[in-house]
User: What shape does this take?
Amino acid sequence: MSAIFPLVLSITLLALTEGVSNARQAASKILGIGYLALGSRSSGTEAFVQGLKDLGYVEGQNIAFEYRFAEGKEERLTDLAAELIQLKVDVIVVGGTTAARATHRLTKTIPIVIPDSADPVGAGLVKSLARPGGNITGLTIMSPRLGGKRLELLKEAFPMVSQVAVVTNITLANPDTEAHVKEIKVAAQPFGVQVQVLVLREANEIEGIFSLMTKKRVQAFILIPTPLFTYHRKVIVDLASKSRLPAIYPHRGYVEAGGLMSYAANPADLFRRAASYVDKILKGANPADLPVEQPTKFELVINLKTAKQIGVTIPPDVLIWADEVIK
Assistant: This one.
């Protein structure tokens, strides 16, 4: 017995030591966060990173980021998503529906968090907002539903406007585009506003669309959010100024680039909230069971410098509603 006891004690101590060692390794494991976007690094990216910091994640200590940016080239998304999957990251954050689709085609197991999907159900990314049912969850920007509000704001700012163009580069057969146009047309009816839908296919057609709006005597336009427009927003706002056409855009990035006004969900808030999804998933939550959340903060941004440049005046009561006025 006396010979066996030290052996048992040694085995027990070894097991305890290994257990503590494994626990320490698990505690010190650096988790991989993949980040994929069609565009480039943005304020949304920074808001997401800050959100993780607020939750106790520190790069190099308990997480490691792998960034991939397509710089506006949609054809690169699949290869970039494949790189992240090959790195076996623990979760992939994707900026925008296009990047989400590219990633989802390649993996049904790695959790995917999307902070800013226009319509994740319509895009086939999730089964429902309440129960996503797969490996994708996140937040929706409710973009199609905001189309009517954008028309109302445009009419409040410019009461005399009666001819409005809705500009898109995605066919009306697309559910997201169809929903946008429907919301805008419904909102236009009480105001007696005529809505013309103009569709272009490539970036080299953007200038031609402005010539067409001039020919059709369009008095203002609403831009439907698409990756192509986001990437070429500076070209678009410059042409709008040159044409002296008032417009309302789908997010503040256009106004910061010189556009007149925008109304949208607050992007910084959405990306910051996306960090909480990543936190839950890293702690064992199943994305299939994490409901897709809707925005809680919206913002109206107005650029008075642009208003002066194109020769229009924004009424004081509209300026009062603005969350930010660029002077």
